[in-house]
From TrEMBL:
This is Methionine synthase. Belongs to the vitamin-B12 dependent methionine synthase family. Methylcob(III)alamin binds at residues 97-101, 145, 203. Residues 1-87 form the B12-binding N-terminal domain. It comes from the Bacteria. Modular enzyme with four functionally distinct domains. The isolated Hcy-binding domain catalyzes methyl transfer from free methylcobalamin to homocysteine. The Hcy-binding domain in association with the pterin-binding domain catalyzes the methylation of cob(I)alamin by methyltetrahydrofolate and the methylation of homocysteine. The B12-binding domain binds the cofactor. The AdoMet activation domain binds S-adenosyl-L-methionine. Under aerobic conditions cob(I)alamin can be converted to inactive cob(II)alamin. The chain holds residues 636 to 850 of 1157 of the full protein. Catalyzes the transfer of a methyl group from methyl-cobalamin to homocysteine, yielding enzyme-bound cob(I)alamin and methionine. Subsequently, remethylates the cofactor using methyltetrahydrofolate. Residues 87-215 form the B12-binding domain.
Amino acid sequence: LPLWERLEQRIIDGEAGGMEDDLQAALDDKSALEIVNDHLLAGMKTVGELFGSGQMQLPFVLKSAEVMKSAVAYLEPHMEKSDDDGKGRILLATVKGDVHDIGKNLVDIILSNNGYDVVNLGIKQPVNAILESAEQERADVIGMSGLLVKSTVIMKENLEEMNSRGISDKYPVLLGGAALTRSFVEQDLADIFDGEVRYAKDAFEGLSLMDAMMA
Ligand code: B1M
């Protein structure tokens, strides 16, 4: 296979052997972020389709996810970093009951490389942990990620909890993850939330929304 297809196929096959050589060769022609966006994410998309249609079993999805993570870790030092610093602080978490963190960690990388302080709490974070850390870490924004449909319900509950604690005005909220839609966030959730809640379809929209929220 040609290099670009091979990168994608290695993610689909969960095949780590030879990946670093291919990534290194790819860096001759494309930026690290282009490699992630144009090729590695395409592989993960196929994995999701195969899994969703019953053609791939969970342990193989896990292998693909591990190869994806190590590829991103390999590319990370090659990613462009701005000289900006101290633009604001975001607390990032995958919500309760959800283990998916590849997207959240990409958001972490993009924001960190572009001048934001990121406190990454990790996966399966209950609302109490998120809100307590936001307070302790003096976060400017709370970012929640979730990929399961049930995570969209959890996000709604978390916003309601912020309302009832009277802290919705204190923290603008950024939401992302494949199970969300723009209209669910910008209409349904915006309707029930007393503060500002925004939807980011990808890490780059997350960055521009952070820039807008911190302006
Ligand atoms: Co899971 N999984 N999974 N999985 N998995 C999905 C999400 C699923 C859609 C697959 C499918 O059926 N086609 C499906 C959910 C269905 C649903 O809820 N209706 C699913 C399922 C069912 C499950 C399990 C329940 C399976 C089981 O156990 N039977 C289980 C759930 C466990 C749990 O959470 N409690 C499970 C487990 C796993 C693995 C552990 C094997 C692995 C995760 C490994 C890991 O993350 N460490 C995994 C994977 C890899 C996937 C798919 C295939 C790929 C996800 C991914 O990493 N994509 C996924 C299929 C899919 O998403 N279509 C699937 C790449 C990543 C970069 O994209 O996270 O969307 P994403 O992030 C994007 C944007 O959404 C955005 O930026 C990123 C790009 O720039 N973004 C943000 C994300 N968060 C953001 C936050 C922001 C801003 C932007 O601001 C705060």
